[in-house]
From TrEMBL:
SMART domains: AAA, PAS
InterPro entries in the cross-refs: AAA+_ATPase, AAA_lid_NorR, CBS_dom, CBS_dom_sf, Homeodomain-like_sf, HTH_Fis, P-loop_NTPase, PAS
Location of the region described as Disordered in the Swiss-Prot/TrEMBL record: 75-95
PROSITE patterns recorded: CBS, PAS, SIGMA54_INTERACT_1, SIGMA54_INTERACT_2, SIGMA54_INTERACT_3, SIGMA54_INTERACT_4
UniProt domain CBS: residue ranges: 3-60
Naturally occurring in which organism (per UniProt): Geobacillus thermodenitrificans
Protein name according to UniProt: Sigma 54-interacting transcriptional regulator
Lineage of the species this protein comes from: Bacteria, Bacillati, Bacillota, Bacilli, Bacillales
Pfam families membership: AAA_lid_14, CBS, HTH_8, PAS, Sigma54_activat
CDD domains, per the entry: AAA, PAS
Sigma-54 factor interaction domain: residues covered: 258-488
Length: 571
């Protein structure tokens, strides 16, 4: 770091205060000559000057030349330049403390860097780290040996120049982790993981891991698994038992289908696994569209009731007068208009499985009392019926309403609240787990494209940034709507920033949750989509001077699609 001048150490006047502090600490010196770019001495920098620079809150990146200019006048009056002693009381002692803190910070950073390098080099797998521009910042010994290159030749190069067929630079752009991908290096299929590194809501780099056991090892495990499953099915004589196993196998998929690695979601997944082990009632809370039903299904699939049905009831969507008949069923002729032969209720239909009571906060008080009775007695009585039927049902309830407050206001029964609130799972809004947005976008893009039979599209970095920064008041449901809209609107395979509906980057909607569940989001969504699409088409026509082919190209849609849209929007 220091310039070597003969045998003595010197500082260049273009070096920084930070570098000077490091030099002084490392060499235990208190002063050093400063030279210009021609190696000519321009003064002497002392600890005292550095202390003063820091006490005057000069930037640690400030140049030593500037420190000399500002403080070398003091040099004449300094008692002894090599001395660490200070004379002007509080200012200096504050700065000395700051210097001591910096020294310790630096030592700690060195120690961590050393430890990290040792760990990396000891790792059996290949590890490479790139920065936000895809430049190699670190690569371990194992990776270098595999590639047959030297570490110092790789550092600072773009990763595509170092590793064949890499996608690490793409992972940095998309922010989407890629696990268990097959990458051909030197003609060999290798298993790799690519993990983005996030800081302050931005991807600042990515880590690539090369798994040396590679594909052959994975195939070996796969074959072993297949053998095991064949063995298991040979033993299975009972067909019912076999179908039960199948259900249990897909249960793991149930939890795994919950996309997200944010710590809050990792905790939710853990809660799901725990809840699945016991038959207790579960209360799931969270804003509309955060995935409450997905979580309820995951608990059902992973639990002992997985063989049974999963029956979902939206308590807010059924008129109060019909809710009782819907939940408990009715007997033949129970009321005018009742179906001949009667009808089983949702509790009965869910027998041996799970009943998901969505929007429980919207259930009328009278019904709350009846539900509580069923929960306690595990028996239901049909409307117009004379006898009770036993039911074995696991109850999972969900709401986006503040139930505790409703209990205080007397709009929700306290006893029912406590009966439901045995296991509580709270789902965070999407804006509080932004790091999951790229993975959710990629998941739903792939899922919907497969469903529609079209080629999947990828997001450009700028488009992804807009989507990450948006506050998603409608949560994951809104995100799914955006993906679906983009699939139908964008014809190419790349989604650029200008393809996104304008409101995503211009209007930052209030972070207040949508109180209305899914219904109003859909209306609001349609209106926003209509407006923003119209605006986008108008802007493209203006930019293309009215040339429709050019406007279609700018919009990323086919000319015939543009003509249809012009008609639709009355242009
Ligand atoms: N963790 C997740 N991973 C992937 N997709 C998810 C996840 N959570 C929710 N979704 C998707 O988001 C949409 C909304 O989910 P869901 O219906 O479960 O939300 P909700 O909280 O029950 O909504 P509401 O309160 O309006 O009933 C669905 O399309 C679902 O597939």
């Amino acid at each position: 770091m220091a310039i070597s001048h003969g045998t003595s150490l010197v500082l260049g006047c273009h070096q920084t205060v930070q570098e000077a502090i490091q030099l002084f600490s490392e060499h235990g010196i208190a002063a050093v000559d400063v030279v210009d770019e021609h190696g000519r001495s321009v003064g002497r920098c002392t600890w005292r000057m550095l202390l003063r620079a820091i006490a005057k809150e000069m930037d640690r990146m400030a140049l030593i030349g500037d420190v000399l200019a500002a403080f070398s006048m003091d040099g004449k009056t300094e008692p002894k330049e090599d001395s660490m002693e200070t004379s002007d009381g509080e200012g200096d002692s504050g700065a000395a403390a700051e210097l001591e803190r910096l020294r310790r910070e630096l030592e700690e950073t060195h120690r961590l860097a050393e430890t990290m390098k040792t760990v990396l080099d000891a790792a059996y797998e290949g590890v490479v780290v790139v920065d936000g521009n895809g430049m190699v910042r670190e690569i371990n010994r194992a990776y270098c040996q595999f590639l047959g290159i030297r570490r110092e030749d790789a550092i600072g190069k773009h990763v595509t120049e170092v590793i064949e067929n890499t996608r690490l630079h793409i992972c940095v752009q998309s922010g989407i982790p890629e696990r268990g991908y097959i990458q051909k290096i030197y003609g060999q299929p290798m298993v790799v993981h690519r993990i983005p590194i996030w800081r302050d809501g931005k991807v600042i780099g990515a880590v690539g891991m090369l798994i040396f056991q590679g594909v052959s090892e994975v195939y070996a495990i796969f074959q072993r698994l297949q053998e095991l499953s064949r063995e298991a099915s040979r033993k299975e004589k009972n067909e019912a038992e076999a179908s039960k196993q199948e259900a249990v196998a897909s249960a793991a998929v149930g939890v795994e289908r919950i996309i997200g690695r944010h710590p809050t979601i990792a905790a939710v997944k853990q809660m799901i696994r725990r809840a699945a082990r016991v038959p207790s009632t579960v209360l799931i809370t969270g804003e509309s569209g955060t995935g409450k039903e997905v979580v309820a299904r995951a608990i059902h699939e992973a639990g002992a009731h997985a063989d049974g049905p999963f029956v979902s009831v939206n308590c807010a969507a059924i008129p109060e007068a019909l809710l009782e008949a819907e939940l408990f069923g009715y007997e033949d002729g129970a009321f005018t208009g009742a179906k001949k032969g009667g009808k089983p209720g949702k509790f009965q239909l869910a027998h041996g499985g799970t009943l998901f009571l969505d929007e429980i906060g919207d259930m009328p008080l009278a019904m709350q009392a009846k539900i509580l009775r069923v929960l306690e007695e595990k028996k239901v009585e049909k409307v117009g019926g004379l006898s009770e039927t036993e039911v074995d049902v696991r109850i999972i309830a969900a709401t986006n309403k503040p139930l505790e407050e409703m209990v205080r206001d007397g709009t929700f029964r306290e006893d029912l609240f406590y009966r439901l609130n045995i296991i509580r799972i709270h789902l965070p809004p999407l804006r509080e787990r932004k790091t999951d947005i790229p993975a959710l976008l990629a998941h739903h893009m792939e899922r919907l494209c497969r469903q529609f039979g079209v080629v999947s599209k990828s997001f450009a970095k700028e488009a992804m940034e807009v989507l990450i920064n948006y506050s998603w008041p409608g949560n994951i449901r809104e995100l799914v709507n955006v993906v679906e809209w983009l699939i139908s609107m964008v014809e190419g395979e790349n989604i650029e920033r200008e393809h996104l509906p304008a409101y995503l980057s211009t209007i930052q909607p209030s972070v207040t949750p949508m109180p209305d569940g899914g219904a109003n989001i859909a209306d609001r969504w349609k209106e926003i989509v209509y407006q923003s699409e119209r605006e986008r088409i108008a802007a493209a026509l203006v930019a293309a001077n009215g040339n429709k082919a050019e406007a279609a190209r700018r919009l990323g849609i086919h000319r015939s699609t543009l003509y249809e849209k012009l008609k639709k929007y009355g242009f």
